[in-house]
Write a structure and sequence with these properties.
The chain is an alpha/beta fold. It is built from nine helices and ten strands. The strands form two sheets. The chain has a six-stranded mixed sheet, with helices on both faces. It has a four-stranded antiparallel sheet with strand order 2-1-4-5, covered by helices on one side. The longest helix is centred in the C-terminal third of the chain and has 15 residues, at 173-187.
């Protein structure tokens, strides 16, 4: 698994320079509908990762995308955030092609909580406010409470003023994920991407995280990248990425299959 991940990272950096598009107009506030139209993508010297892929995510909908390692789930997210462009097809926010707007304005409307989140060697408060540095203490605390992070933060030596160390080394994996979620919620994006966001949690922590998300996600368009059955309870529908295309599947069947794999 580690080797496969390393190979995908190397392939990612082998792609042409990240598109910028800062001379383009800003993306206007969106109603949060996302559409992939016949998208295809291949890494250099590699096979086709995405093949004629089409998907529409409605405003306020929560979908899960599952699939084996290397199926192209991360590639899908990189394309959505315009870290690279598709070889074929297009991606639209509402009815706007994301290549026709500045990448800064595009990403301002997307919040990403990933498996490994960049944290600064600063205070908890500074890390939560990273996307909105002018936020006041009450706004930071409100976001932390929404992410179920306030309780553990208040137990730290200096509370919100506690310095967490490089990459948050003084926090557990689950605590880092909660700080990352609080940061994203403070940003208040129209679209939220949770990419294996509960991978660092124990079962109890995962349950609390999911309960927090369940209350918060009703007003956002959410794409959930996961292989964990518990997360599927958040979703309106589940899609499996296989052989470069998306296929509708039953979330209870996906959960059962994953549980059986984990038991082996």
């Amino acid at each position: 698994r580690a080797r496969g991940g390393a190979e995908r990272i190397l392939a990612f950096f082998a792609v042409q320079a990240e598109p910028r598009g800062e001379d383009k107009p800003d993306l206007q506030p969106v109603s949060r509908r996302i559409r992939f139209e016949n998208v295809g993508f291949s890494y250099p010297h590699g096979s086709e990762v995405l093949r004629d892929l089409s998907l529409q995510v409605e405003a306020g909908e929560t979908i899960a995308i599952t699939g084996k390692n290397g199926a192209g789930k991360s590639t899908l997210i990189h394309l959505l955030m315009r870290m690279m462009d598709p070889d074929k097809g297009r991606i639209l926010f509402d009815d706007t092609d994301i290549r026709d707007v500045s990448t800064t304005s595009l990403r301002a409307q997307i919040g990403l909580v990933a498996q490994h989140t960049l944290l600064l060697n600063g205070t908890v408060s500074e890390n939560i406010a990273y996307g909105r540095p002018l936020s006041g203490p009450s706004e930071v605390e409100q976001a932390a409470r929404a992410a179920h992070a306030h309780e553990f933060i208040t137990q730290l030596p200096d509370g919100y003023r506690t310095v967490i160390g490089d990459q948050g080394l003084r926090l557990s994996g689950g605590q880092r994920q909660r700080v990352a979620l609080a940061r994203t919620l403070l940003k208040d994006p129209a679209v939220l991407i949770l990419d294996e966001a509960t991978s660092m949690f124990d079962p109890l922590g995962e349950q609390g995280f999911i309960e927090a998300c369940r209350r918060l996600l009703t007003e956002k368009t959410v794409i959930l990248i996961t292989h964990r059955p518990a997360n599927l309870a958040l979703t309106d529908r589940v899609l499996e990425l296989k052989d470069g295309s998306l296929h509708s599947t039953d979330k209870y069947e996906v959960g059962r299959e994953q549980f059986e794999m984990d038991e082996q």
